[in-house]
Each structure stands twice: as C-alpha cells, then as structure tokens.
Write a structure and sequence with these properties.
This protein is mostly helical. Helix content is 65%, strand content 4%. It has a three-stranded antiparallel beta sheet with strand order 1-2-3, with no helix packed on it. A hairpin with a 5-residue loop joins strand 1 and strand 2. The longest helix is centred in the N-terminal third of the chain and has 28 residues, at 3-30. 36% of the residues are buried.
C-alpha cells in the first residue's frame, strides 16, 4: 500500500472515530427514560439552601440582582420561609443600594422611575439593557435600537451567533415582558415558543454542564416549555451538584492535582478547582423549585 493510500486510510479512521465519539457524547447528554425521583429533587434543593446559609457572609456581598430575584422566586414557589428569610436579610442590608437603582425590581420587587440616560450611559451589555426594558416596559427604552433588535427572534443568530447565553438572556427578557404584560401576550407567546425551540436544540448538542447548561433548563421550565427538557439534562444537573450543596459554572473533566481539574468553563478550557458559586447555585435552586412545583400540580 502506497504512502498516500495509507494516509487516506488513517484519515478515514480518524474521521470515523470522531463521528462515533460525537454520537456517544450526544447519547450521553440526552438519553434517559426516567425522570429523577421527587425526593432526589427535594434533597438537592435542601442541600443547596444549606450551602447558601453556610456561606452567607460571603454570598451576601455578591450583588448580582438577577440571582437574588431567582432565590426570591424559588422561596415563593417552595413557600420556604427559611430561604425567604435569607433573601429578606440581603434586601434589608442592601436597601439603599437598590433604592434608586434600575435593578430595584429584581431585588426589592418594585420599580420606580427609571433613569434611561443612566442605564444607556452605564456601558451595560445589550442583554442587561433588554432586561431593564422588559421588567419596566419603559417607552423610551422601547425605542432604543438594541432593545428593538432583541425583540426579534433572529437577534442571536444575526448578532451573537457564538454567544451560548444569548438565547437564554433573550428568553428571560421575554418572560419578564409576559410577567408585567408588556405588549401583546399572543405575540410574546409566539416569540417564546420560537426561542424555546432554539434553546432545546442548543441543549441537545452542548454537552458541557457549565452555567449556561443550567440556564437553558431553567428558562425552558419557567417559560412553560418544560416538556422540552429531557430527563437526562436534569439528571446531569443533579450529578453536577457538589458535595457541599452548591453548583459551579465549571465542568471538570480530568483531575490534575489534589484540588484542580482540567475542564470546561463557559467559553474555554481551563485548569481550576470546582468551586460552587452564587450564579450557578441560584439557578440550580430555582430549577429544583420549579420541578417541585410541577410535580405538585
């Protein structure tokens, strides 16, 4: 056999190996016939709330308003006085921080006058501007180009095709619009349905259990499209919960030391410890609260 033919044969085997590996990864990410048991969901929720309390001093210094909204929403869904007290303590400590803030609605549950010039001049990413518009329905923000663009279901493909969280952020904005009845509900429902289909496709192919993996499952459950969530995704989220009770935005693959692993971050490969964080854990807690509420219906 000539050298060229041998090289072609090796390339063919490598291509075949790549295809088989991809199929195995997709099967691993998606195939499961059984949903997790309700007691597994409940145990996961309780362990995560325990982690919040064990790290309260540090976490109460984390001012990610969307995460505090998620914890408040979870407490309401679960009718969990303990988690509600945890959030109330944060609200009381930080009332002045949010009293005249564009994020007031998320943390304090109410909205006053929005300083549009301050929002637009703060250098916020487009999705954050869209969030503020979505839960305020402010007429001035409605006319801003970046808000108009994000109301289009093709926005992410046309503007941020390589940003994994673009679709989930867009879905969150649409859900807030529905919550406060900003616009025609039928039109919003149609947009939510289109985005849900796109998120489901992303979740099928993206095997990395990083922050956006949780976020996709979360927004599908919140949007009324829980039927698009595969049981395997829930099982993988449960498996990713650390022994301490929280979730990390890092997906470890191979250990490279006593506490370090090589693995996936949201947009790269890195070597780091698997440390729980508020961003991932708040989403995990709300997922478990939503699943519990669905099971109770």
């Amino acid at each position: 056999m000539g050298r060229t033919a041998l090289l072609q044969k090796k390339m063919m085997y490598l291509a075949l190996l790549g295809v088989v590996s991809l199929l195995l990864l997709l099967a691993y990410n998606n195939i499961s016939l059984r949903a997790p048991a309700p007691d597994h969901i409940e145990s996961s929720y309780q362990n995560a709330v325990k982690w919040l309390y064990e790290n309260k001093v540090e976490l109460h210094e984390k001012h990610n308003s969307m995460m505090w909204w998620m914890l408040l929403r979870a407490a309401q869904l679960k009718q969990d006085d303990r988690l509600l007290a945890y959030v109330r303590e944060y609200q009381n400590k930080n009332y002045s921080r949010y009293d005249n803030s564009a994020w007031r609605y998320l943390v304090l549950g109410e909205q006053r006058y929005v300083d549009v010039d301050a929002v637009l001049g703060a250098g916020l990413p487009p999705y954050m501007v869209y969030f503020v518009y979505s839960y305020t329905c402010n007429d001035d923000l409605a006319a801003v180009d970046t808000v108009l663009a994000q109301n289009n279901t093709n926005y992410c493909w046309e503007n941020q095709p390589l940003a994994p969280a673009c679709l989930t952020h867009q879905m969150m904005g649409l859900q807030f619009q529905k919550r406060i009845q900003c616009g025609e509900i039928e039109a919003l429902d149609e947009k939510v349905g289109v985005i849900a289909e796109k998120i489901q496709r992303q979740a099928f192919f993206d095997v990395r259990v990083v922050d956006v993996y949780l976020q996709r499952t979360l927004v599908l459950l919140q949007s009324g499209h829980g039927e698009k969530v595969r049981p395997r995704w829930i099982r993988r989220i449960l498996s990713a919960q650390t022994q301490s009770g929280g979730w990390s935005g890092f997906h470890p693959l191979l250990p490279v030391g006593r506490s370090l692993s090589i693995g996936f971050t949201g947009n790269a490969i890195a070597i780091r410890p698997t440390v729980p964080d508020l961003h991932a854990t708040a989403q995990g807690i709300l997922i478990m609260a939503l699943l519990s509420a669905t099971a109770a219906d």
